[in-house]
Structures are given as C-alpha cells and as structure tokens.
C-alpha cells in the first residue's frame, strides 16, 4: 500500500505542476463512468461507486486552467435498458463544482453498454477537431449488451476528432481485464488497473497526466516556392542549357518562346542521336519537387513526340509526352492521350492514358479534330521520395456552360532509386514519316520546398 501512496503523492505533485502552454492544442477530456448495478460492489467496506465519485470529484477540482471536461454515464437510470446512456455534462459547459455535484447524484442501476457508450461519445466532441481529445472510461465489468467495445474504440480513434481512448479497470477479474485492455489498444490509449481506492486515485491521476501532456508541435507547413524558371526571353538560349546533338537550324529563341522543329531525320531518344535535346545544367533540387512546362504543339504527322522529363543518357531517362493519332474504323477519328516512358539500362517501362477516344464524324477529318485539343498543353513530373508521377493538365469545354474546365490527369508512379538525369525537353518523331513536327515552349519551371 505504501508504494501506491508514494505514487499518488508523486503524481499529485506532478499534476499540480501541469499547466497548458500557449502553443498546446486545447485539451478536452470526456469521462465515461460505469453506472451499472455492479458498481454497488464494495471494497474495504465502501461501495465502488462512492469511491469513484470521490476520486472524480477531487480530480475535477485540480484540472489545470483551460482544460475542459465532460461526463457521460451509462446504466444509471433503467435496470433493463441497453440504451441507458446519458451525456450528463457536455465538454466545457460545467464548472468543476457543478460537475462534481452531478457525479455525486448518480445511482447505479442497470446494464453495461460499453460499446454503445463509446459510439455515443463521438458526438460529445462535435466541432472539437484539431484538439487534444481524450476519452477516459472507468468501469468494473464486461460489456453486457452484446456490443464490441474494441471495434467501437477503433472506430472512435479513427474519427475526425481523433481522441485517445483510455480505460481504468476498477476491481476487475481476469476476464473483465482482458476485454477492457483491448479498448485502449484499439483506441490509441492506455490501460490502468485499480483494485482499491488508492490505486484508483493513482490511476486517475496518471491518466490525467497522460491527457494533459503537451501534444508535439505540428511541423510547420513547408512552403512551395519556385526554384528555377526560364521564360525564354531575349534572343539567345541561356547558359544553363546544354544542347545535346545541337542543330542550330532547328531551334530559335524569340518572342518569349523556344521554337523547335523535328523531322523524320530526328531519331528517337534511345538512339542517342536525337537532335536538340535541351538539358538543364543546374543541380537538381534535393527533396521533393515538381518539374513542369507549357507547350504549343502543331500536330500534323501523328509521330510528334514533344517531351519533358529527366535525361541522363540514351539508356537512362524518364519522359512524359502527349499523343495524337488517327483512329477509328475509317482512320478519320482522333485519339489523344498522354504517355510516359522510363528507360533504365536499356529496359523500357511505359504507361499511357487516352483522354479522347475516336472523336469526330465521317466528315470530320483528323486535321480538324486535332484542333479541338486546347492549347497550350502543360505537362509535369512530380517527384516524391523515389516516386516520379507524370501528368498533363487537360483542358476541355463544358458544353452546358461554354466554360473551359481543366484538371490534372496523372499516370502511375515510376520508381527511380538513383536519379542521375537532369531536367530536359525536346522534340523528335517516333518513326520515319512525311512532313515535320513543330512546337514551342512558353516556359519551364521547377517548384519545391523552401
């Protein structure tokens, strides 16, 4: 017994020294008290309900300023009802003295609907999201209304109020303790056992200490800033670009754009001979980032590959590019989509997604259909850890409102364990064809965490 008295004295001093700090989230504590008939059982000549009343009343008067408490009771009014659950005091509405008086007026009567009480407790925290919320159940017995207290605790902990669910088992046997212990395990809380008055005092003081502990400061939101941008102003390509396989006759910087032309003599990227691959020489930012660019593309050969991505060598790159091809039974429909290609040690992984499937009519030729693709076309690659997610900003006309609507359409993630490539862009044709492909780049940028 001396051990518990010492523990109680220590915890009392500790609790008395607790005070909320200004940066701490609001602490809300809802006590659920067992008011079932079994609480008339006695310990050392005193009814358990009377001990619980005294301990709770004492605790409430010692709550630090700013901590808000509430009380829910079950089994205290109807002998046979599993719905006998009452929010006796809403969180933060009663003073400690008023709440203590309400506690002292309780009379144990009926059943033990623990699961239903836990389910009902969620409504007590309405509009108390983003706070330090705790449910403290004090009970001496098993669920007697066929509920599942453990499942109820798990659901409560996952609710948007995210409370921690603690339990004090008061004078319980092994079977009761086994059931009660699963509640805080499922509810992200702690279990405290008490077999007599002093142990109950110590347990209540300790659970109060746990609830009053300062929550860790939320990490400040990382601000996303522009780390690099090129708007292609002036008449010369800036020094931060390396041009691989340069063909000066096939690109020019003017009027705030980088204009590029690719023909059937522009081999694909994996040959290592693609002309005018524009590769950034700047160091790639550490951490997570987004690479994006805005293009205007003249689709006329179906072989255009205007790409944005990361390029190291012809055997090591990741690019995203739009697709516009003839389709349909008569070859006079438009299919438009996005594809992304990862080349790693000569092995290709490819994802794609069609955004337009066979648009057009028999009299609506491909050249006219492709004009319905709204430009400029914005593409991006988002890096999160070792995952790289390509996407395209898809713009479409809402026929009902005649307004332009846009949304990002993304492909599956690629995984790159050791990134060696640097941001790059360019144009090539996927195979030999008649004609040439032309495109302009309005801007390219990299955004990341400050």
Give the helices and strands, then pairings.
Layout (H helix, E strand, L loop, with lengths): L1 H16 L9 E8 L7 E2 L2 E2 H14 L6 E7 L10 E5 L6 H9 L9 H8 L10 E8 L9 H10 L5 E7 L3 H13 L4 E4 L2 H16 L11 E7 L10 E4 L6 E4 L2 E7 L13 E4 L8 E10 L5 E10 L2 E12 L5 E12 L2 E13 L6 H4 L7 E8 L2 E11 L6 E7 L3 E2 L6 E8 L6 E14 L1
How would you portray this structure in words?
This protein has 450 residues and is of the alpha+beta class. It has 2 domains: 25-212, von Willebrand factor, type A domain (Rossmann fold, 3-Layer(aba) Sandwich); 224-449, Jelly Rolls (Sandwich). It is 20% helix and 39% strand. It contains 8 helices and 24 strands. Strands 9, 11, 12, 14, 19, 20, 21, 22 and 24 form a 9-stranded antiparallel β-sheet that branches. It has a 7-stranded antiparallel β-sheet with strand order 10-13-23-15-16-17-18, with no helix packed on it. Strand 11 and strand 12 form a beta hairpin. Helix 1 (2-17) packs parallel to helix 7, helix 2 packs antiparallel against helix 3 and helix 4 runs parallel beside helix 5. The two termini are 57 Å apart. The relative contact order is 0.12.
State the main characteristics.
450 residues; alpha+beta; Rossmann fold; Jelly Rolls; 2 domains; nine-stranded antiparallel beta sheet; seven-stranded antiparallel beta sheet; elongated; disordered N terminus; Mg-chelatase, subunit ChlD; vWFA_dom_sf
């Amino acid at each position: 017994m001396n051990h518990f008295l010492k523990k109680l004295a220590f915890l009392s001093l500790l609790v008395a020294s607790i005070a909320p700090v200004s940066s701490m989230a609001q602490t809300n504590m809802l006590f659920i008290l067992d008011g079932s008939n079994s609480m008339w059982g006695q310990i050392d000549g005193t009814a358990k309900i009377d001990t619980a009343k005294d301990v709770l009343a004492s605790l409430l008067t010692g709550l630090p300023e700013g901590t808000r408490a509430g009380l829910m009771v079950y089994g205290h009014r109807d002998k046979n009802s599993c719905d006998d659950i009452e929010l006796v005091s809403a969180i933060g509405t009663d003073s400690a003295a008023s709440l203590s008086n309400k506690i002292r007026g309780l009379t144990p009567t009926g059943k033990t609907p623990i699961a239903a009480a836990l389910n009902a407790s969620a409504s007590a925290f309405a509009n108390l999201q983003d706070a330090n919320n705790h449910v403290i159940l004090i009970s001496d017995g098993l669920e007697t209304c066929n509920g599942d207290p453990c499942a109820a605790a798990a659901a409560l902990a996952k609710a948007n109020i995210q409370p921690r669910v603690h339990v004090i088992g008061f004078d319980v046997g092994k079977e009761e303790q086994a059931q009660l212990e699963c509640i805080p395990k499922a509810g992200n809380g702690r279990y405290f056992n008490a077999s007599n008055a002093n142990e109950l005092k110590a347990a209540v003081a300790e659970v109060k200490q746990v609830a009053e502990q300062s929550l860790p400061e939320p990490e400040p939101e990382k601000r996303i800033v522009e780390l690099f941008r090129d708007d292609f102003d002036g008449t010369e390509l800036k020094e931060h670009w390396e041009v691989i396989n340069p063909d000066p006759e096939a690109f020019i910087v003017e009027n705030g754009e980088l204009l590029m032309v690719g023909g059937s003599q522009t081999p694909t990227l994996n040959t290592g001979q693609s002309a005018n691959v524009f590769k950034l020489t700047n160091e790639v930012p550490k951490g997570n980032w987004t690479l994006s660019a805005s293009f205007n593309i003249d689709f006329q050969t179906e072989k255009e590959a205007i790409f944005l991505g990361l390029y190291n060598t012809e055997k090591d790159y990741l690019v995203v590019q739009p697709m516009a091809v003839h389709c349909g039974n008569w070859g006079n429909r438009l299919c438009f989509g996005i594809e992304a290609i990862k080349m790693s040690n000569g092995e290709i992984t490819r994802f794609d997604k069609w955004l337009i499937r066979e648009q057009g009519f028999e009299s609506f030729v491909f050249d006219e259909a492709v004009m319905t693709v709204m430009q400029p076309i914005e593409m991006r690659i988002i890096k999160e850890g070792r995952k790289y997610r390509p996407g395209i900003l898809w713009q479409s006309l809402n026929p009902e409102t005649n307004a332009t609507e846009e949304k990002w359409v993304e492909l599956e993630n690629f995984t790159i364990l050791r990134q060696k490539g640097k941001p790059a862009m360019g144009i090539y044709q996927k195979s030999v064809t008649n004609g040439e492909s032309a495109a302009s780049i309005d801007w390219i940028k990299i955004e990341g965490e400050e």
